[in-house]
Amino acid sequence: MVPPDTAQAGVSEEAPGGVGAPAVPPVSGRGWRVAAFARDRAAFIAAVVLLLVAGAALLAPLLSPYDPAAADNLLRYAPPGTAGHLLGTDAQGRDMLSRLLWGGRVSLVVGVVPVALASAAGLALGLLAGTAGGWADQVTMRLLDVLFAFPMVLLAIAIAGVLRPGVWTEVVSITVVLIPYVGRLARTATLSVASMPFIEAARAAGATRTALLLRYVTPGVLPPLLVYATTLVGLMIVVGSGLSFLGLGVQPPASDWGAMVSEGRVVLRRAPHATVLPGLVIVAVSLAFSFLGDGLRDALDPRSRRR
Amino acid sequence: MPELLELRDVSKSYPARRGRGRGLRAVAGASFTLAAGETLGLLGESGCGKSTLARLALRLIEPDGGTVRVAGQDFTGASAAATRRLRRRVQIVFQDALSSLNPRMSVGVNVAEPMRLQGIGSEKERRSAALELLDLVGLRPEHADRYPHEFSGGQAQRVAIARALILRPDVIVFDEAVSALDVSIRAQILRLILDLQQRFGLAYLFISHDLGVVKRISDRIAVMYLGRIVELGAAAEIYRAPLHPYTEALLAAIPVPDPRRMRVRQLGVVEGEAASPLDAAAGCAFRARCPHRMAVCDQATPELLPVLGRHDVACFLHTAPPPPERKAA
Description:
The structure holds 2 protein chains of 2 kinds.
Chain A: H1 6-11, H2 31-39, H3 41-58, H4 60-63, H5 96-132, H6 134-148, H7 152-162, H8 167-194, H9 197-204, H10 209-245, H11 257-264, H12 273-300
Helix pairs in contact in A: 2-12, 3-5, 3-12, 5-6, 5-8, 5-10, 6-8, 7-8, 8-10, 10-11, 10-12, 11-12
Chain B: E1 5-14, E2 24-34, E3 39-43, H1 50-57, E4 65-70, E5 73-74, H2 80-87, E6 90-93, H3 107-118, H4 123-136, H5 153-165, E7 171-175, H6 183-200, E8 203-208, H7 211-217, E9 220-225, E10 228-234, H8 235-240, H9 245-252, H10 264-267, H11 295-299, E11 305-306, E12 312-313
Parallel strand pairs in B: 3-8, 3-9, 6-7, 7-8
Antiparallel strand pairs in B: 1-2, 1-4, 4-5, 9-10, 10-12, 11-12
């Protein structure tokens, strides 16, 4: 009963351009995601930079030429390039390179771990609030609003203040402070994805709640969350330093990058490298995370697939 | 043999926001049936409740009252598991095909997705079923690995049709499925739809505001006005001799290809805006625009009743008005 020309009619529909155009050999399977990421030069460089920085921090005990706490009062404010001290020394004559390497361990943990934890918690809360609706949504969001009411750093100080000072105190307090920010973004993203027609189509096909949430909503919520989270890392490195400065985080003589900036600040004219070097490292790492986030988002989006 | 799809007295209202206005009656007491291999055209202007009715039939929204039955089984009160199973028999093609496809899945995965969601077949079987259906709707196998944004509107609609077919349903609801397409592509898609119906013996609920399309494709037609079905009957019969003044006006408003034969007078039957669906007062919903308005039209709401030797209509011109004391009866 079916006219034999149906298939032909379909293909000739929009011959010029569009999908019918001669195809470059299709990238097989999921390979295009890796390819898209590698092609994004900024993201690729960012990833390499971050791997190097993280590797250096991890290997600090092996790489650092001096004990980061060993002071040499005869060699204070040595500029970069001084024999034996590649990046110079600080106000107490401690080796800058060693301090940067060791400080990176603290700064990276404080920047990355709370953001990762808060993203996971915020994603869960946002998905819950966005899909459940009704009172569950109201209760969740009002609780987050309460956290929102406090200034970010003040709340972190309050939380860190009741715990014993240390790196993990910083991590906990920053995580708690970040949850409302991430949660709110996740909820908004959830609502916008949940209202898409393809969600209704999936329901009509018999999708269960779990399938809708995990297979349809979450993949749409992740990319904006990823971009937001990666921009937070640099900021949290600085917030963590603030906590250390107040004596709530790492204790001297241990230090992180932010604390190095603030220690060097008083001698900015006499020994600019004491401030500028850790500052540059923070900027570079923050930027790298940001580019990494954009690159990952693009790699997750089929619309960026090039053919 | 039981009807494949049966809606009885289905209603849906959307409550008003607190302190603002009255609720909206999107669908009021709608009933119709759909038999195997048949096409029922659902005709009406924008905002008359056509799409709400489609969503009620698919149980994408819950009705306030009335029942939906699929192949004789109760769909409205069905358990989650039973609902999921019954969904296999009734599928839908949306107007905006492109956004009804998941942008993060390739087209092949999109088409196979209903099988996955229903837990049917292995990955391999789903893939080959999807390829088979893409071929059936006139797409090439290599299209399966592309993503929805790479497709044109007509192609996306073919993909959506393939997806609707993959569960081997008995009924497909087309919600304005060809309204957004260019005229030439619309003709191709319509032909595809008709071919598929003949091949698989599908029943269609075809929703459109396009009189020409509905006339071409439908066996029977239901005309909706402000949430109510006001006329229901064989397509040829309704187009030849409509009973309801609204249907009459709709048909008179079809543009004539020859402008010299077009009479302005014919277009002017329905004056003014449609009464608001927010207005829940008693009386015929169409009376404000009706050229045949009578006293009884303000007092009672006409029900959809069969007219002797003709088809069903909800209009006091053709059906007897109810006795004054209805509640006592």
